[in-house]
Amino acid sequence: MTDATKLDGSIALVTGASGDIGSAVASLLEKRGATVIRSDLRQTSDTGSGFLVHDVTSEGSWKAVLSQIDGDHGRLDILVNNAGVAPMGRIDSMSLEDWRRCQAVNVEGMFLGLKVAADLLSKSGADRLGGSAVINLCSGASDRPSAFSAAYCTSKAAARMLTRVAAIEFAVLKKPIRVNSVHPGVVESAMMDKILETYSEITGGTPVETLRAGVAGGNPMGRFVTPPEVAEAVAFLASSAARYIHGDAIHVDGGYAAS
């Protein structure tokens, strides 16, 4: 009996691969047998040789990346739309530029990925059990609001709806592409460290460790999520073990969304 969670022979693209979650996802997909193309605005020491410079807000950049993948591999079985930003700020003082940048990366980048990659994903999915797989990294912020994060919460709520619409539309068009989302809770990451620091500044100097303890204490399981735990959910949805899961959301948040 074969293990349906294996990804042997699959070609995967992970955007935002220089970050903590993207790096963990790419590494796990490789361990499961996939060939992974990592992409980001800039390369870091641990992104490896299969790296492409990629601005997810640019349709031209998406076309260049997909053309490279098609030329090198002739297929794309897994697309992980992970690139994201999380600007913090008060609604009455956040710049329109920061607001628009957040929507451009978190929503438009995901839209462009679905648009530009659809044909290659569809071609590849025709001979793959369960079809090809798109996994969009959303957030618990798509379900529950948080002060000083209007741009981020709004973008992730839009990303969740985009996931659902794409899933239904691809099904109507009979494209063999499954589209799902993963919703991490508060993740141990450099991004979260920056968010807590900014939150501290906005609230007049609340100690970061006090904020960290409060956030962890508000989670039913009492701690932050780790990037490898998020990666496990992504890898499952990418595999044929999830071949009948479509348009759905997996929360990796220790029960926060349910509380």
Strand order of the largest sheet: 3-2-1-4-5-6-7
Biggest sheet descriptor: 7 strands, parallel
What order do the SSEs take from the amino end to the carboxyl end, as H and E? EHEEHEHEHEHHHE
CATH topology of the largest domain: Rossmann fold
What is the CATH architecture annotation of the largest domain? 3-Layer(aba) Sandwich
Percent helix range: 40-55%
**Strand elements, count:** 7
Radius of gyration: 18 Å
What would you call the quaternary organization? single chain
Q: Assign the CATH class of the largest domain.
A: Alpha Beta
Task: Tell me the distance between the termini.
Answer: 39 Å
The whole-number mean of residue pLDDT values reads 94
Q: Name the beta content range.
A: 5-15%
Care to describe what's here?
There is one protein chain. Helix 2 runs parallel beside helix 3. The longest helix is centred in the middle third of the chain and has 30 residues. The protein starts with 10 loop residues before the first strand and ends in a 7-residue tail after the last strand. Helix content is 44%, strand content 14%. The chain has two domains: 201 residues, NAD(P)-binding Rossmann-like Domain (Rossmann fold, 3-Layer(aba) Sandwich); 37 residues, no CATH class. It is an alpha/beta fold and 259 residues long.
Which descriptors apply to this entry?
2 domains; Rossmann fold; 7 strands; alpha/beta; 44% helix; 14% strand; globular; 259 residues; 7-stranded parallel sheet
